[in-house]
Write a structure and sequence with these properties.
Elements lengths: L12 E7 L3 E7 L32 H18 L5 E5 L10 H15 L4 E6 L7 H7 L4 E5 L5 H8 L8 H8 L7 E5 L1 E5 L2 E4 L3 H14 L3 E5 L10 E3 L2 H15 L3 E3 L1
Parallel strand pairs: 2-3, 3-4, 4-5, 5-6, 6-9, 9-11
Antiparallel strand pairs: 1-2, 7-8, 7-10
Helix pairs in contact: 1-2, 2-3, 6-7
């Protein structure tokens, strides 16, 4: 069963908030302020399903994003506020914004000016890494956090619901190899039910498929996490920390790649 859930962020710059993965984080939303634009329609997305529509405000342009960020960073700096990371997330997929590469360049410059020790992070669902301009922009950030929720095609399609039929596990795993040694792979672990189908990417079969994919991709780190906020699909179950840690330990041992569990 799905419930009526809508976007959480109503501005281009939001926070800072405390991220369980990244620390004190200032968010940048490159999607509309009153709707959702995403190339996935994940059953666990805290912003709700794409059916809510894209809203009316449109995607923020590079100049607005730069000036809004400059204003916020200046205010925070004057107040002596701490900042660990500037994070691109928000109401959809940030790399869908056509100005994404230029906005990344502007953000890095402003970070260097106001908070040179802060990191720049991007949370991406990996659907746009086939675009050379997007891929090059992602290579410039400190934390390029790329989604891979399942390495088994039917499970990936059930959980992430990509809007393009051309997006496949095989293609994305191959494309993710370009970030070998630098990218961070993020995997949402969950179980439950959606549209009458069982959902569970924690089974031995699923974990072994992920291990195979991680070995091929060779990221610098793997992030495992589970549900922490409300989801549009009500029949989903959080994987508790002890189980996540056990899965993470198995993956780390099998791959030799550091695993962070949140």
């Amino acid at each position: 069963m799905a419930k009526d859930q809508t976007v959480l962020f109503h501005s281009t710059i939001f926070g800072p908030i405390h991220s369980r993965r990244l620390g004190v984080s200032l968010g940048i939303n490159l999607s509309p302020n009153d709707g959702k634009v995403c190339s996935f329609d994940c059953i666990y997305c805290e912003a709700g399903y794409n059916s809510q529509g894209p809203g009316t405000t449109g995607l923020p342009l590079r100049d607005k994003a730069r000036e809004d960020l400059r204003r916020k960073l200046s205010t925070m700096k004057e107040a002596g506020d701490p900042l660990d990371v500037i994070t691109f997330s928000g109401n959809g997929e940030p790399t869908l914004n056509p100005d994404f590469p230029e906005i990344i360049d502007n953000t890095i410059a402003l970070r260097d000016e106001f908070y040179p020790d802060a990191k720049v992070s991007v949370l991406t669902n990996s659907t746009r890494i086939f675009n050379p301009r997007v891929a090059e922009a992602l290579k410039k950030v400190d934390n390029n956090i790329l989604k891979l929720d399942s390495a088994i095609e039917p499970t990936m399609r059930l959980i992430d619901q990509p809007t393009s039929k051309e997006f496949t596990v095989e293609k994305v795993v191959e494309a993710l190899k370009q970030f070998s040694g630098t990218g961070i792979i993020q995997t949402m672990m969950l179980r439950g039910e959606h549209a009458g189908e069982k959902v569970d990417n924690t089974t031995p079969e699923e974990v072994e498929a992920l291990i195979k994919a991680y070995k091929e991709i060779q990221p610098r780190e793997i992030m495992l996490y589970s549900l922490d906020r409300s989801t549009p699909e009500e029949k989903l179950i959080k994987v508790e920390k002890p189980e996540l840690e056990a899965i993470g330990a198995h993956i780390a041992q099998a791959t030799g790649i550091p695993v962070q569990v949140n």
